[in-house]
Amino acid sequence: MAAIIQYKQRSATLVETIVALSVSLVIFGITVAIFLQVTASSPSMQRLKAQSLLETYILRTETNKEFFDEERESQGMRIRREIVNPQNNGIPVKIKFSITADNGKSLAVEWRLFKS
Q1: How far, in Å, CA of 79 to CA of 60, rounded?
Q2: Contact 54, 45 (CB under 8 A)
Q3: I need a surface site. Which of 10, 36, 48, 65 has the fewest CB within 10 A?
Q4: What confidence score (pLDDT) does residue 88 get?
Q5: Phi, then psi, of 110 in degrees rounded to 5
Q6: How many Cα atoms are found within 13 Å in the side-chain-facing hemisphere of 90?
Q7: Residue-wise over 28-55: b if at least 16 C-beta within 10 A, else e?
Q8: Virtual CA dihedral for 79, 68, 91, 85, nearest 10 degrees?
Q9: Of 108, 112, 109, which is closest to residue 59 (Cα–Cα)?
Q10: Which portions of the chain are predicted below pLDDT 50?
Q11: What pTM was estimated for this model as a whole?
């Protein structure tokens, strides 16, 4: 009759498991931080941020009826509001909204008509 051979394998202790998980968590955290930094600085993300900022500015213009030329800087971007045709006799006001980055690159341009 053949004897059954049993091998005993040493298991990891609780401290070793916690250390391994901690190292894995730190590496994962660093990887996510690098990924988010690269993604946030991408041109598409910058355009998305610019479009959101421009929509907020357009809504404020419509709400407050600010139908005049203006240029301002916000969040490192330059927003420009330019009246194409002045308001007269109930004709809608045509306004060009544009936003540029610090380096002068155009990120978004919108044309809107507003009732005066």
Answers
A1: 13
A2: no
A3: 10
A4: 67
A5: -135, 140
A6: 0
A7: eeeeeeeeeeeeeeeeeebeebbeebbe
A8: -70
A9: 112
A10: none
A11: 0.61
